[in-house]
Amino acid sequence: MSSSTSRAIGAAPQAEETGPGSKPQRTVRPLRGLLPFLRPYRWRIALAGAFLVLAAASTLVFPVALKSLIDQGLVAADPGERVMALHEHFVALFLVGAALGFFSAARFYMVTWLGERVTADLRNAVYAHVVKQSPEFFETTQTGEVLSRLTTDTTLVQTVVGSSLSMGLRNSLMGIGALAMLVITNPYVMMQVIGVLVLVVAPVLVIGRRVRKLSRASQDRVADSSAIAGEVLNAIPVVQSYTAEPREARRFGEATERAFATALKRTATRSVLIVFIIVANFATLLWGLYQGTQAVLQGHISAGHLGQTVVYAVILIGSVAVLAEVYGDLLRAAGATERLMELLATRSPIAGPARPKALPAPQGGSSACFEQVSFHYPSRPQTAALCEFSLDIRSGEMVALVGPSGAGKSTVFQLLLRFYDAQQGRVRVDGVPVTEVSLGDLRGRIGIVPQDSVIFSTTALENIRYGRPGASDDEVMAAARAAHADEFIRALPEGYQSFLGERGVRLSGGQRQRISIARAILKNAPLLLLDEATSALDAESERAVQAALAAAMAGRTTLVIAHRLATVRHADRIVVMDHGEVVDIGTHEELLARGGLYARLAAAQFSN
């Protein structure tokens, strides 16, 4: 297993790197990528904004009501007037508090709904985009990295959209409103305060940029841990058979420690940002309050005026403190959004044409043709998987591909299914180049039984029905009988409704293979690809499934990859491959008579 667990997606820049002449991004610019996900809910956003403004306004009205209480309810000379004034002012204060509670609750509900909805939409969009990527994407990107982006990164986005952003806007409004009221009440002093606050902004931006970079790096290190966990858990039998549990636990622990160290740097930098903002603003506002106190002593303003000033100052300080926290959340979410947008910006090199051609109706099976095809896998550009490979497969024909490992047999299947495109030459299905056909139509013509059978975490019935989702239960069971899977499925505790476990852990290798064969039979495609389809079967099951496959192959074209030559002795043609080239073609008897590679392979197998 590779020790490297993090892969760059697309042309994504590394979190810690900036070129010598590069211009740093704005701190929250990546958050603009969320706009397409927010736009469908603009009316809900407007409603949430209205509640947010009303909640902020209710908070800002409170100090005004308090000033009236002090100046009119406490300072009034007549005791009767004072009691009546107190009653009126306390009722007014209660109504302000009730309004604040209602509008805050409404705002909380609306923004929380938005956070959950947008996060769900984002997860769906990222997942739908990833499953459309070609195998080339998964050659360079680990599954654990993608899962980290789908879970951890989207959770950070949810925190911002569903909470932090709303809190930031609310406290921005409250802070601006409180500052405005302070300027109105003490314009000379507060203009000095504003001048000092402007000087605070510059270091905040510098520190903030560092926090964003560390936030992105922290998410990357978390993805490293997820990649290791996904890799090991998918190979747990191998890990345990080599008693590698301590080694893998240590490797995971090292990745976790790296993530912790990066998160610690981010937290420390963010803490410096928070303390700087709060201390600088607190000191500045204390200066303003000191000047206000002097004004009361000199008789320039009333005690209620000073009380109002104190409350507005507290609101401003509290808003700044909250904004410092929100700013840190925005920085983390900007890094997470950047990673998600990189994933969504990744474009698969395999895409359907703008104006796809229609495939002709198959006549007893689809034909396939390879014309001087040369192909290199993107991860191995120096090694040719196929070299000027030509092969014409006629409708209804059974053709076997044989040869040593690495001869290019599986690559033929990959190009037929258009998981990759050939660098040279052309691949046709039913006379139409595969690049000119929609991917859905092309792959709908092809059924495949892979060497490593894939079993999903669902029932036996649904696993087979995966080949044709609209099939009835009777059709599913008929396909299972054809693949000789019906007997062992009915023997399961709940028959066809039995849950097969993750990756089919409740089944033997041969049983998984027969489920896969039943799935391909149910699809009933005119072109059938069998990649060592009976490799996991015992001799008795193999004979039974071979008979079933023979019946299933009737009337359709079949292309078979086989290492066990006994399974393809009766093929119409056997294509012998070596180093990506066709070295011989013929029937079993013809190839034996000519000698060569096939004869040597047959001699080795049949003598054994």
- Can you tell me the number of structural domains? 2
Distance from first to last alpha carbon: 33 Å
Radius of gyration: 35 Å
CATH topology of the largest domain: ABC transporter transmembrane region fold
Q: Write down the overall geometry.
A: elongated
With helices defined by DSSP (H or I, 4 residues minimum), what is the helix count? Answer: 18
pLDDT < 50 stretches = 1-27
Which strands sit side by side, in order, in the main sheet? 6-7-8-3-9-10
* Largest sheet features: 6 strands, mixed
In CATH, the architecture of the largest domain is: Up-down Bundle
Quick one: how many beta strands? 10
Average pLDDT figure: 75
User: What multimeric state do the chains show?
Assistant: single chain
Question: How helical, in percent, are the residues?
Answer: 55-70%
Strand content: 5-15%
Structural class: alpha/beta
CATH class of the largest domain, named: Mainly Alpha
Q: What is the CATH superfamily label of the largest domain? A: ABC transporter type 1, transmembrane domain
Order of helices and strands: HHHHHHHHHEEEHEEHEHHHHEHEEEHH
Please tag this protein with its features.
single chain, 608 residues, alpha/beta, ABC transporter transmembrane region fold, Rossmann fold, 6-stranded mixed beta sheet, 4-stranded antiparallel beta sheet, 18 helices, 10 strands, 61% helix, 10% strand, disordered N terminus
